[in-house]
Amino acid sequence: MDLKLEHISVALDHQKIVKDVSLGVATGQFVGMIGPNGSGKSTLLKTVYRVLKPSGGKIFFGGENIQSMRIGASAKNMGVVGQFNNVNFDFTVMEMVLMGRTPHKKMLSTDNEQDRLIALAAIAKVGMTESINRSFLTLSGGEKQRVILARTLTQQPKFLILDEPTNHLDIKYQLQLLGTVKSLGIGILAALHDLNLAAMYCDKLYVLKDGKIVAAGMPVDVLTEDLIRDVYNIDCHVDVDLRTKCVSIVYRPLDLAMGYN
Ligand SMILES: Nc1ncnc2c1ncn2[C@@H]1O[C@H](COP(=O)(O)OP(=O)(O)OP(=O)(O)O)[C@@H](O)[C@H]1O
């Protein structure tokens, strides 16, 4: 499914946090949102998955105005992997992952064999098969994040929202998570901090600063030394592989640069 935001603004505590943002994610496209801490990325994503209401503008999901869709209908098709995975009750890994089937089930119906097979396949995909009976609360931050991804895969969503999904993951699992979601071939909107990973996996980037989009386009066009300096206030060197158009960024923090003479 595709997603379109038209002139979205969001106010929190009487303050405008997101200001007149328009963006689009086509079916099958992996779109990244980058920008400094506090620039409004999570606020915008929460508005898309309907935890927050916009103060202005429209959101179209699969061509339909999301405001006129039942919450259940949008939740069934939209998977979310967030930054924080706190739960108050102690569930096993299998129980956590099976919760991904909830949007597909009628009230009070129990999990069937097919639900279990879908959950087991997702658990295997994130490399957690040996831990299916472990308590979720006893897992490390990265293991929890992988279980949350398995839960989202079990939901079989038609669109994915990722809010800093690689927090807590070591480099192997960062690459695995982004590779796994990309291979699903569905629309993805992801807030990412790692610009090198964003460049590797995203088809398109939007750059947010102070709640506004200040640049958009393919990573190779957006991630320039000038833009990174303007938005993050840091010097860097950007290399572009002319054959693959792959971008790699090396940062030059001022305090280290002084010792380079
Ligand atoms: N409930 C709230 N009430 C008031 N201000 C809020 C609320 N939630 C977030 N903010 C503020 O809105 C701004 C944007 O926050 P948001 O979490 O969307 O930024 P972000 O770009 O996702 O940041 P980060 O990269 O640090 O995760 C911040 O200044 C934050 O303090």
TrEMBL record:
Origin superkingdom: Bacteria
Keyword terms, alphabetized: ATP-binding, Nucleotide-binding, Transport
Record domain ABC transporter: where: 3-235
Gene3D superfamilies: P-loop containing nucleotide triphosphate hydrolases
Transmembrane segments: none
PANTHER family: ABC TRANSPORTER ATP-BINDING PROTEIN (PTHR42794:SF2), HEMIN IMPORT ATP-BINDING PROTEIN HMUV (PTHR42794)
Protein's name according to its UniProt entry: Iron complex transport system ATP-binding protein
Organism: Propionispira arboris
